[in-house]
């Protein structure tokens, strides 16, 4: 008597039995592309900031961001932001087009992420 009707079902059950739980963290922000802004050619320029650029030519960036974790139980740190700010330039966006920006990281520690987006 065969318990499983086909080999695929048997393989899926075996994979499920030996699979470990893997987690990751991801945050995203959905926005529409703003109207282009022209900046005067004065120094310092945005290029002088040496920020990573995300746009149609480079859709993703793999980088290492510094992480700082604390809790509000320490009176000296109470009310201070969790983590450090990281800046990137979003370039060559189409005005009115919907975009989704995702930040993903390994779930080695749980943390709270606060987004602040100004367009």
From TrEMBL:
Keyword Electron transport: no
Protein's GO biological process: GPI anchor biosynthetic process
Molecular-function annotations in GO: mannosyltransferase activity
Keywords: Signal
Signal peptide span: 1-24
GO cellular component: endoplasmic reticulum membrane; mannosyltransferase complex
Top-rank taxon: Eukaryota
Name of the protein: Uncharacterized protein
Protein's organism: Beauveria bassiana
């Amino acid at each position: 008597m065969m318990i499983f009707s086909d080999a695929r079902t048997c393989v899926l059950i075996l994979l499920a039995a030996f699979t470990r739980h893997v987690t990751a963290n991801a945050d995203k922000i959905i926005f529409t592309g703003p109207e282009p802004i022209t900046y005067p050619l004065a120094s310092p320029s945005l290029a002088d900031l040496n920020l990573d650029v995300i746009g149609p030519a480079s859709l993703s960036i793999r980088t290492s961001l510094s992480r700082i974790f604390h809790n509000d139980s320490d009176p000296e740190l109470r009310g201070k932001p969790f983590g450090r700010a990281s800046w990137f330039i979003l370039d060559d966006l189409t005005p009115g087009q919907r975009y989704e920006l995702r930040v993903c990281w390994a779930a080695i520690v749980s943390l709270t992420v606060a987004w602040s987006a100004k367009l």
